[in-house]
Structures are given as structure tokens and as C-alpha cells.
Design a protein that fits this description.
- Four copies of one chain form a homotetramer.
- Chain A is an alpha/beta fold.
- The first copy, chain A, folds into two domains: 2-127, Rossmann fold, CATH 3.40.50; 152-314, Dihydrodipicolinate Reductase, domain 2 (2-Layer Sandwich), CATH 3.30.360.10.
- Helix content of chain A is 31%, strand content 21%.
- Chain A is built from twelve helices and 13 strands.
- Chain A has helices at 12-21, 42-45, 62-68, 81-88, 107-113, 133-142, 151-165, 195-198, 213-224, 257-267, 284-287, 316-330; strands spanning 2-7, 27-33, 71-74, 94-97, 129-130, 145-147, 172-179, 203-204, 229-236, 243-250, 274-276, 293-300, 305-312.
- In chain A, the strands form two sheets. Chain A has a seven-stranded mixed beta sheet with strand order 8-9-7-10-13-12-11.
- Chain A is globular.
- The mean pLDDT of chain A is 96.
- Chains B and C meet through helix 11 of B and helix 11 of C.
Chain lengths: 342, 342, 342, 342
């Protein structure tokens, strides 16, 4: 039984994290750090937690947290998370950071894609482990600072990794991705996440400039053994949870859908959270509320184009579920504990 | 004042068509042909029409319709529309067919993309005019049989025509398009259009095989002066009305967003229903309930990729609104009559 | 052709009002007063207006507005509208105020139901006309200051007026009403109108204390010739537009549904915007985007209870459409001009 | 570890039931009886079950089922369930019927409220136990045939039981209830559950005549020790899951909100699945996906009216979750097993 804290505990991802951790048999949550809500009971802020926990929010010092927690999840915004890591760094505490602050390998990427942010401890960038278990499981097991991937990055990387690893597609890639509005978090963003902004609507934003792009390019580049360039085009959809990522790729050789499925099934053999669609295509409804990533395909044989599509729940596999999967690896628990019932 | 009839008047597109025609100052609707609803008042079937019309559905013979109508809209399913056209053909009546039966130039395309359908009068395929006014206005003016384009085809062709006409993009194209559920019509389709199938969900269907593909390829091919190949990937979204089509294209030359906007503004000069987004990107919410097609762009300068996106209301510009636009041209009315108030 | 201005022109109701006024043949909009947007073109703020108007927002003095407008719509928040009316008062300009500032007949009601608001010109309270045309048409025709009713009040009063006028139900009434989120306007209200607050949810708020209650009680009380007491319970629904109001009433005498329909058809004889449902029940979908109010009934004969329900579009009949209906009366135009096409 | 079967396993409630039972540590599901899907793997019909179960649908004889199952859930439509119960009756198998066939105490009610249905074994009506654990826990523990309550009945009875037991409100009651579309099941019902029927809409249906009414009246009547009459008015909302029930009651004595909360907290003391809202009002979002029933109140002190409202997930506490709660009681398991993680 480890003691676990959440810093930035008033966030949407913290809420989901707490929901998962309360079902985790190896974990006791002992700190929910929130300056906004300190002193309040969780169920007074989020009525859905009534009868499920007696926990309250608090705002102890990081020094105190170091003493009482074995593991810390940080769900603060990017730019703010590195401040916390800097303080916690010298301790034996294991950290899973859900922000973007430690996802990129050096400061130049960070400055380019997160302009205006001041990273507080750039020397850790190269030491943090990118927490995508299906690709980096062994490193995560030994990690004490894990950077939880971006939601879009999770969906895109998982859908393309086998293709790039096996050198099946070109390295100049276009991906369209469609996300539920919870991806925008709990703060109001003008013209963006009021009900009236998105109901009955689709909303393309940041085409070509979204900050999850370099995670995708660098991670997929490693697998490809070559530079990968991605034009990433995100779009909000009138759904609360879920991401669908779609990309299409000219094939150099004739491959059948069966060939592609075989390649993915081999690549993701024994992966509990990856599901390859042999029939049909991935749907958001099948993964909502779960830590699964569903991946499916089609071949346009007329034009020899491969479509690959994946779906995840942006708050679970795209954030808090994956964070728990990382914790499970870092502490030697069953990787699915808290995420699939047994 | 012309006399207008609708055959297949119980359909969703007929309902929208009637709504538009009741506001049209040059038109009197005199026949709403529906076997299902014959004898019923329109407002008893569709309460939204109460106080707006006293019309009733009826089921007169086609012979009778020939005598009393100047113009007929056919909103029957593909395969069924050509039966009607065959009967009406020898008369002076002008026909606008909203089905797919007369969109393709010869029977081989029809047989390939609409397998199992028996075309009743294939000799008219080459005579029918493809009713996309922005591209074929002059032909439509003289047409007595206009094939109203598919909803997806309208959104895709309008978004790409200037690029292909000006030889800016390659002719091997991938398009993703997202449609509101009204595109599926009023009949139940299993796993497809029940509320529970699509709420909180996205649903890819027929990737690479959708029947609107050949309309796009042939029409854009004419503009390009060369064969155009399209991998078209449609997807249902939890919205009632609206289509967003997105495609991305490697550019051979460096072009700015301003360059692209200039090309489109020139191509669509004086077009009342085409709106080029100088800022932001097209949204479904801006076109819902209208006959507009909004088109917008972005350049991913890092990768020299052009994104083009368009939105329409699938039932208006993608069906009934465009049908009225065609009627206006065929009868010499103001092209916007009934579609934009003055 | 009258000259019309809108003050508070950046609001959601102003947007709808402009949409309607652009289709009105007797009106030229010459002022869109908005401090927030002054200098901007309407279509740069609201892309849906592109190709429909070249108007820009501006912020002239009220003195200037008095000189150039014949009619002013005020769509500022309650408390702020009376400031504007105070300034415009001495002129010959006719005013339609969409706020609550002039809906209640004396200051004591205002202070009780709008606590903390300072009314700037209470002496006008008794002179303003309550702008519900179906009940107060003759007064509105002569009015120079019309208080446009609240959206909920419109739906509730219209659904109950014939019952109270005919002394059919008790005067202690409970009404539940369900409103689309646009009723909350365009500003963020915490826990209330973010997409995630209301998607997949219903949200009861202010039960028994909503500020539209006194409008209902006083207006219906006048009809009843006696005090009417209403417990009004509003609730947000995951829809953008539309209100459904439902109330149930023990009947003293046995009445059939047909009896009730007759009473309503007589009461609302010749009313263009009231539609009595002879079959089925009112639905939001049938009135969305229109100025209609649909009203329907059922009798629970087992318990001798009458259910009355009404639907309106909260932004049209509940706000901007009704405001134009009032303007039409105040200026002697056809009452349906701009609201129903001819 | 008991062996459990589901008959009618292709239904929406069966799907949810299976999801819950797969997480239940005392249960092994061994039969998923479906004639429609027999021979198919569960995850080929419902992709969401991939990696979660290897079960397949089958269609063994009821004789066979009797031999291999300890417990059977029936999720067939009303009228069809009694056929199954008739066959299984003589065995030691324990039955939980999710249909309406055994909810009413004698045939006269059944014939009145389910006209046209032929009950196959009416002699069991008086022996079946009404499976609302919060009211009838002791009887359920000894039951071998439990009639799982209707979804609306669950929400309404739980929200009103303490008031009637304590003689606080009148026995002539009006309840409005709002249900997500999943309540309509998986079959198409005309004008009712297509996406386009309910998107952007509310849909009142069967006011005063819904078949769950007698369950409510009889169950609450028992508590009140007197006849209770309910006018029940259901309405579909554009949400997939969840019910909100609202009723308002004139109070004879002055009671505060605190008084009411005390009465409910006492009545539902130690109930794990009942949550009394001390602040705010019940929301569907807080109970979706859970077996909780949230109940909240307001007093309109001006008019001395009590509003009571409750929310449940119609598929969980309103169907499959409550069925598992009943099973837990019938087999002596922890009542929350499978329903709340520990």
C-alpha cells in the first residue's frame, strides 16, 4: 500500500485520477493539494464522490508532501508543474507529471512549442521518461520522474508506431484528430468551450501548430530511425470525452487489411490496453471511460491508400488512466490494477 | 409564378425543400406526392408547418403531375428516381432530381458505385446537367433535367475546385468529411442513426468506398484537365445538420495563406453562397440552416502543407437549398430567391 | 422604412435580433452600439453574417442615437438598461427593452426580485407597457417604451392565460420549465454553461426564486382577477435553443381534452404565433428558430388532472422575435413582418 | 462463486448487466442466451467488451439452463419474460426479472396497464418480490423470484417514500420525469429514438398513462397506509443515460429544508446507494454510470411548497445495477459488490 498525493487536485484530470485511485487496491490517497479548494471535502466540490470518499482538499507544503507520500501526480498546467518538480526533486518520491513540462527532451523544443513558459528545472528534461507504456515499459519501470504523454500524442503515436517501426509509410504525415471538449479542461476559454460554442458544431483549432506535435514527431522518429514530420490538425467535437485520430498513407507496396492487422497484432502482442479492430472501425463510444486504445484500418485498394484510425478516452488513456498505468509500472504493481477489474 | 411539385414528399429533404419553397416569391407548391402520407395535411405529419401552409400530401398519377406542374423536385431514393424521370421525360416539365440517379455521366460508373440498382433510363445520363451552380451555371440555366449533387460532393468539390483548376495540388487526394446524422435520412439504419448509436460518438463508415466519390473525382477531374483520384473517408458526428470536409495537400511551391485566399476569392468572385474565411476556420454553426459554403485554409509552413476545409448544411446547400438554387437558374429567377432574404 | 438601433449589440439576443431585422422590409438597421466591438465589422465578430451585411459596430453617444434612430432595442443586462432608457427618455424615439428593468409595475417588486440593482428611472415603471402582444396588443400599439417579457414568462403566461381567464384552475400553481443553454447568454457562469457542465446533464437552478416569477404572477393575476401564486422551477437542458414549460392542475369539473382545446382556440383566435396542438404534445424542435408558441394538453382522467405544456424558442419568441413583433405593433407594420415569410 | 445466466442477452440492459457482472468477484457468467446472436462472440457484437471477456452468446434450452445456472437474469420484453419464468419455475434457480411481468401484485393491474399482454403464469404474481432493496431488503433476501422495478418507478419511489411514510405530503401527486434515450432500448420506435427525433428536442410521451405508474402508486400506497394517486408525466431528453424525477408538494405545516433533509437521512440511514444532497440539487451527471440515487429538495417558503427531485442512471440503478444489488441480497453477498469498488 503506497501513499499517493495529487498536486493541482482541483483539475478535471485530478478528478478522474481520484476516481481511478479510489478503486486501486495498492494505493491510499493521502494528499489532494489544491489552494482553491483547501479545507473543503471532495464531495462538497464534486457531488459524484459522495459515499465514495471522505477525503478533503488541503494545501500542505511540498516539504510536508515529500515526507508523507511515496508517489505524486502533478496535474497543474504546463509551466507550473516544473516548479513543483524542482521542489520535490531531491527526495525519494516518485513523480508522474501530467503536464507537458517534461515530455520534450531538451529546452529548445520546449521554448519553441510552449512560448512564454519558463521551465524551472530544464536539467531534468533529459532524465524524465516519456510515459507511454506500450513503447517504453522498461524505462518507465525504473523511472522516478515520468512525463505522462499528451492526449492527442497518445492516440496518434499508438496508431502509427507499428507502421513507422516497420517502415511501411512515408515519414511526412498528416493527422486529423477530433477531441471531446473535456480536453479543454475546466477553465473557460473564449469562443471555445461554452456549451453554445460547440453544440451543433465542429471547431478546427491550431492546425499545424498544436503543442502535442513535437511529442509525436520525436517519439515516432525514434521508432522510424529517421526524422518524422507531422502536420497535426485538431478539432473539437460536441462530445465530452474521447479522441478519434485519423491518418491516411500512400502505400509503396500492395498490402491487404489482413497484412496490416497482422503487423499491429504482432507489434502490440500481449498489450492489455491496445485493441485491434478486425471488423469495423474504432469508435469513441467503445473506449469512453476506459484505458483502452482501439485501432482500426481500411485499405482503399483503388488508390493504394491505408487509413489508420484510433480512439481513446482523452481523460483516461489520454491522461489519468495512463498516469495510473505508469504508476503501476513504477511501483511493480499489476499494470492493469485500478484500470481493469478482475 | 410557377407551379412546383415534390415527388417523394415524405422525405427529410422534401421537408426542408417545402420550408424553402413556402418562402419563395415566384413559386406555388401544388403537389406533394407521397404514397405514405397521401390524404394527410402537411402539418399533421410535421407540426412545425402549422400556420405556415394548408397543403396536403397526395398521390396523383405522373400523367396528372405533368399537366399541372412546371417544375418537379424528386426526393426519392436512388434507383427509384429514374423510374419517375422516365415517366416525366417526354413532357415540358423541368426536373431537379435530388437522388444520385443522374449525377454520373454513364452507366458504368453507376453500376460500379450503386451496385444492384437498375437505372430505368440510362440514355438520359449524358443529357442531365450536374447541378453545382458555382461551376456549371450556364449549363444549368438551359437544363431541363438537373442532377442535384451529393451533400459530401458539394462540400468537397467546392473546397478543392480552385486548387485543381490552378494546378496547385496533386491529383491524388485524401479527404475526411464529417456529417450530421440527418444525412442518413429518416429511415432507421441499424447501428447507425439511433440516438444511442451516435450520441457521444463518432462513426467512420465506408472509408474509400462512399458512393459520392465518383462525382468528386469526375467533376474535379474536368477542372484539373486530368484524372483526379480521391480517397474519401466519411464519418458521422453527433450533430443533426452540417458537413465539415477537410483535406491537406503537400505544396510544390511556397504559398502563403494570403496567396490561397486570393486564388479562392478570384475563383469565386461574385458567388453569393461561397464565403472565404480570411480569419479563423469554417464552422458548421455558421452555415447551419443556410445555403452558404464556408471555405478556409491554413498553411503548415514547417512542412509546406496546405489544409483546406469547408462547411455546408448538408440538407440545404448539400440538398434542398442547392436544388432551389438550381431551380432559380433554370427558370431565370434571382439565384438567391428563397435562400437569402432581401 | 424606419431607422433602428441596437444598444448592447454584442449580446446573443442582439445577434438574433440583427438576423431578424436584416430580413425586415420596413427597417434599416443603422446603429449597432457595442463598446466591446466598436469599429469591428459584424461579420468579423460573427462569421455567420458574412455576405448578409456590411454593418459595423460603433459606440456613438446616446444623444447621437436619439437623432438618427426611430426605434431602439436595448439588449443590455438588467440594471444597465434603465441607464440607457433614462438618457433616451425625453426623445420621440420608441424603445423596446429586452432586459427586466421595465417589466414590473413598481419598484418594490424590482427591489425584491432583482436585489442589488439600482433602477435609474423608476418613475417610468408604471408607464412602460408589458410587451406580450397576445394579451396586450392594443396597449403595445400606443407604447413608446415596451418591456419585452422574460423568456420563461412568455412560455408560462401563454400556456396558462386561457385557464386563468376562464377560471378553470386554482391560483396556486407549480410550473417546471426546461431551457436551452443559450438562455444563460454569452458570458461564462461558473458550473453552469461550460460544455462539460451541461452535456449529458440536467441542471435545476433557482427553484422557487427565479426572477421571472413575478412577471408571471402579476400578468396572470390580472387575467384571473385575483392573486396568482406560482412556484416556478427552471432547469437547464443540453440543448442550445428552446423552452418547454409544463404544469399540471387539478380540475374541479370534468373537462375533456377537446373542451380545453376549444377554450384555447377561442382565446387565441386569429393569433398568428400561437399554435394549439390538437394531436401530440408541443416539442422544442417544432418551434426552434421561429416566433411560434406551441401549446398542448392532456387530461389524466383517472385523477382529473390537466397537463398544459408550451414550447417556444427562448431567443425568438422568448426575446428577439417577440421584440420585433412588438416593434411591428408600435410602428403599425404587419405584425408578422420579418417573422413569417409571405 | 455462483453461475449466472442472462436470458435476452442481446438487450441494452443485458449489455450493462454483463459489464457489471464481469467485475463481480462472486459470480461467473456462464450463459448469455440470445437467439439473435447465438454463436457469436460478445466482443464481435459489442466491441467495447474486447479484452474483457471471451464469452459467446448461445441459445441452450431452458432445461439446460436450469442445470448449469444458480441465478438467471431475464432481460426480455414484458410479456415474454413470464414465458421463461414459467419454464424455470420448478427449479431451485433464483430469478431476477428485469421486465414488468412480475412487478404488479395481481392480474387485474397487469391487464389494465399492459393491455394485450398474456401473462403466462399469473399465479406467481403474488409470490414475486418487488426488488427495491431500500424498501424491501428483508423480503428480497429470501426471494427466489424478484421483480426488478421499472426505471422511472425506482427514481420516483425513492424520492417520495420518506414523505409518504411520514405523512408529510398529500396522496394526490404529480410527478414529471425526464429520461435519457437509452430508456427506449435498442429497437427503433417511430418518431421516438432516431437521433434526429430527439437531438435538440424534448419529447413528452404517455402523460398520465405510463405503465410504471401502478408500481409507484402501489408501493408508495403501502408506505402511506392509504391509496396514493400519481399523475406521471414522462419526457425524453437528448441524453443517453439518466433520469431526473421532480415533484412539488403543498406542505400542511411549515417545514424547513433542514427538516426535510433530516427526515430523509433518517429514513435512508446506512443506505449505501442513496445520497441526500445537502447543498445543490441532484444532477444526472453525478449518477451516470453508477448505482446511486441522488435526492435533493427545496422549499418555496413564499408558497409553502416542497420540491423533491431525484436522479438515477436508468440503466444502472434503474435496471441492471439494481438487479445485481438484488442478486447480492438473494445470495448473501455484500450488497455493494460489483457496484462500488473497495
Amino acid at each position: 500500500m503506497i501513499k499517493v498525493g495529487i498536486i493541482g487536485a482541483g483539475s478535471l484530470t485530478a478528478e478522474e485520477l481520484l476516481k481511478i485511485l479510489l478503486n486501486h487496491k495498492n494505493v491510499e490517497v493521502n494528499i489532494l493539494h489544491s489552494e482553491t479548494y483547501q479545507g473543503k471535502k471532495v464531495d462538497s466540490v464534486w457531488p459524484a464522490f459522495k459515499n465514495l470518499t471522505d477525503l478533503s482538499f488541503s494545501a500542505p507544503s511540498l516539504q510536508k508532501i515529500k515526507e508523507v507520500c511515496d508517489c505524486i501526480f502533478i496535474t497543474r498546467p504546463h509551466g507550473k508543474a516544473s516548479e513543483v518538480v524542482k521542489e520535490l526533486n531531491s527526495s525519494k518520491i516518485k513523480i508522474i507529471d501530467l503536464s507537458a513540462d517534461f515530455r520534450l527532451p531538451d529546452l529548445s523544443y520546449y521554448k519553441k512549442w510552449y512560448p512564454g513558459m519558463n521551465h524551472q528545472i530544464p536539467e531534468l528534461l533529459s532524465k524524465a521518461v516519456y510515459g507511454l507504456p506500450e513503447l517504453f515499459r522498461d524505462k518507465i519501470k525504473k523511472s522516478s520522474l515520468t512525463a505522462n504523454p499528451g492526449c492527442y500524442a497518445t492516440a496518434v503515436i499508438l496508431s502509427l508506431a507499428p507502421l513507422l517501426k516497420n517502415n511501411i509509410i512515408k515519414k511526412q504525415i498528416i493527422v486529423n484528430a477530433f477531441s471531446g471538449v473535456s480536453g479543454a479542461g475546466r477553465m473557460h476559454k473564449e469562443n471555445f468551450n461554452l456549451f453554445g460554442d460547440i453544440y451543433g458544431n465542429l471547431k478546427i483549432y491550431k492546425p499545424g501548430t498544436h503543442q502535442h506535435t513535437p511529442e509525436m514527431e520525436l517519439t515516432l522518429g525514434k521508432l522510424a530511425g529517421d526524422e518524422v514530420k507531422i502536420t497535426f490538425i485538431p478539432c473539437l467535437i460536441p462530445v465530452n470525452r474521447g479522441i478519434l485520430a485519423i491518418s491516411s498513407h500512400p502505400l509503396e507496396n500492395k498490402l491487404t487489411k489482413k497484412d496490416i492487422i497482422d503487423i499491429y497484432q504482432k507489434f502490440y502482442k500481449n498489450e492489455k490496453f491496445i485493441r485491434i479492430c478486425e471488423n469495423g472501425y474504432p469508435e469513441i463510444a467503445s473506449v469512453a471511460g476506459t484505458n483502452f486504445c482501439d485501432i482500426g484500418f481500411e485499405i482503399d485498394a483503388r488508390n493504394n491508400i491505408l487509413m489508420a484510425a484510433s480512439t481513446i478516452d482523452n481523460i483516461v488513456k489520454g491522461a489519468s488512466g495512463q498516469a495510473v498505468q505508469n504508476m503501476n509500472l513504477m511501483f511493480g504493481f499489476d499494470e492493469t490494477e485500478g484500470l481493469i477489474s478482475h
